[in-house]
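We now fix the convention by which a protein and its fold are recorded. The integers have meaning only within a learned vocabulary of local backbone shapes. A record is reproduced here so that you can trace the correspondence yourselves:
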Amino acid sequence: MPEPVEAPFLDPTRLERILEPWTSGRSQPTVTVEDPGGMIIAGPAARDGAVGSRRMQADILLDGAAVARIVATGGHEADASLRASIEALAIAIGELAAEGRARRSTAQALHELRSEMAAMTLGIDATELAKGRRQQRSILSLVAPEVPGYDLASHYAAAREIGGDFFELFRLRRRGHPLGIVIADVTGKGLDAALLMAFSRPVMHTALDAASGPAEALQRTNAVLVDDRRGTLFITAVCAILHPTDGRVRVAGAGHEPPLLVPGDGGPIVEVGGAGVLLGAFATIGPPEVEVTLEPGDILFFYTDGVTDAVDPSGARFGDERLRQALAAAQGGSAHDLVAAVSTAVQAFQVEAEPADDVTIVAVGRHRRVRAAGASRRS
């Protein structure tokens, strides 16, 4: 049994999002994350009737040491599917713990050391790594397609020579040619994450083009990843389909930060949809799908956790509140204005610190037009 240690690198807010699917009903087991002493870090308290039931658990490891554990209460000890699910979940959260620790390290020194070690181990010099980064950027849709009536803007900055984030904006091959939107984050860094990104991007593109909606596209992608997975990296993602004629957007998430709707009339900024379950860990994910309508002037803002998890030299996080403040300061502007405001705010917050995670931002804004007198804003 691994010796337990403290777990200061686990973000309870992010863990709650990951565990959200386990909190929606009373018929399924209660799943929580506990520290080595048995205190609940995230997840619901045990439900009535589950207390005293058999507990199924899996250690969350960091460098071979148990920093926390996943506990399923109220399930059956012979349930192989539940056992596999909590073990996969423990692996994924262990990856997040490793990322959290890395963000609190001396970023510049760690970045240089790991880059040198990777180059030495793989026989790749700095020139080749730079070439790899250029090639990776070439497969990201940095040039958005033309969508009359809309502004599309993006920003991408890898934390290392090669990153694990990816995004894509493309017209779907169906009636009306709606816009497909994908933003995703591999739960890792460096070459391994880049390879999984390169594999997953065309899978997700094809799935969104063929599926009836974004939730089905995520389910199809997940099936491929589960069948083909060779390592312990997973993917968080948001898929969306925009119908330009009326501004309808269908959005589905898989363990990713929900996009933010920034109203053009100055109204409150709100999350669209839920986080869902990350890709590649479970055979069935059931991603939540919602629909929202972009009114003239509205902007839908997508981002990866490299934005909110950015740290300043003291180790403080940029966080959700600073993100919303940056968006509010640029509210009423174009999609490009919002992307510039947030990326600039993140860079200023980090000062000279090396970024600890990839930063990816995508914004889709509907052009303003004169609204008929007396027309309601939103149903």
